[in-house]
Amino acid sequence: METTEENTNSKVATGRENPLRAEKRRKLESLKELGFNPFPHEFDKSISNQALREKFSHLEEGEQAEGEIFTLAGRLMTKRDMGKAAFFTIQDQSGVFQGYIRIKEVDEASQVFFKHVDIGDFIGFSGFVFKTRKGELSLHCKDFQIISKSLEPLPEKYHGITDTELKYRQRYLDLVMDPKSRKVFEMRSKIIREIRSFLDNRGFLEVETPILQPIYGGASASPFVTHHNALDMQLFMKISPELYLKRLIVGGFEKVYDLNKNFRNEGIDRSHNPEFTMLEWYEAYTDYKYQMKQFEELCAHVCKEVTGGLKVTYEGKEVDFTTPWKRITMIDAIKEYGQIDVTALSDDELFEKLKSFDDSLDKAPLRGEMIAELFEHTAEHHLWNPTFVLDHPVEISPLTKNHRTEKGMVERFEPFICGMELGNAYTELNDPVEQRERLQEQEAKRVVDDEAQPMDEDFIRAIEVGMPPTGGVGLGIERLVMVLTGCHSIRDIILFPTMKVK
Predict the structure, then answer these.
(1) What is the C-alpha separation between 164 and 486, in angstroms, rounded?
(2) Which structural domains are found in the chain, ordered by start?
(3) 145 forms bridges with which residues in the sheet?
(4) What are phi and psi of 159, to 5 degrees?
(5) pLDDT tens digits along 52-78
């Protein structure tokens, strides 16, 4: 019968009292005593499981492929021992393949290895391909070798890892046991590859910006703080590459992007992780309207290339990436979804409306801040299909150019999808005098708001040299991956999410 190794509560047992673990160690020592090496330096694998399956998919039931011998390698996942013969399956990155062995047909070394093999071991074997009478492609084994002896039992096959926290803490086990999880991370890699391809094909130059920065900026966030011993100076981990990328626009590069890690000392929830991947690009001689079109084209391109179409299902509902996406101003969104006309309200009336959503407020924020908070309470969760929310208040946009027609607003958009903010974009502020005033206001706010941005004199000096009109965009990679892969939590699409040490 088919066997798999089990352990208590479907978790990996690490204590020495675990009999499966003890048996694995006994077999390891036995192999060494017999003079066999269960950890060779290399193994000559000739083909992947999937490639072999595709190559011989034409075989009929009971048919044998003549002539060619192939060598497979992977992790042993199942074994059906029938005494004189056995069927087993191995798993490599491409999938699973079945092996078949008749004990008396293989040499003595192969017999010793097969006697000592356990579920979870990495094995290698060679043989010819045939299709069983039940229609399963298999490799008839001519030699057999253990190439890495596992010492920990795998979780029980049929349930895998049921403890969600264990999946995140021991991702290697999640990847071994759950093909769907591996598929998610393969899709994530393809998404990033398609993003790069899209921008490269449009003439963008990929660049790198510092992770350790003497002054942080480019976003409203609390940084991680560290200290450099040799220079005896405080440094901050990057919260955004924005101010460095704008320096490159000043320097003469016209299209640049950075696909980078950002670090923000903030809370953790289903859509936030302190370490995350951000794409930012900047393009000279463009504005936010141009970048809205480019943003939706990028996302639609990635969706089509990765999923095969422009519609996906997320949380049981359809999401349609077809362009053009809906466009709505922040003020109109509040009116449409919250039935509140903020243009008709005084500051005091606006504050009373805001307090109806958040009664902990005891002091009125700036008018623009209240408008932004009302949007979050009334409209954000309604934005399911891709939607651009544009024309934000100047008070919450210190790096953005003033709107050319709407007083008190700036030329900024945020794309939303499935109720989540997907990114942020501006017509960039390139007037150094106004930029200094904006950052001075931010500096003054730092007394009461630790997420306000600090003054950066070198950045001001850079745009004093002269920066052309520029459109800049940020795209949160994890949230796009969540939607395209159908994953509910950001932790499902980060290989090693931030976890509290136990």
Answers:
(1) 17
(2) 2-158 (2.40.50.140), 179-325+385-492 (3.30.930.10)
(3) 124
(4) -110, -20
(5) 999 999 999 999 998 899 999 999 999
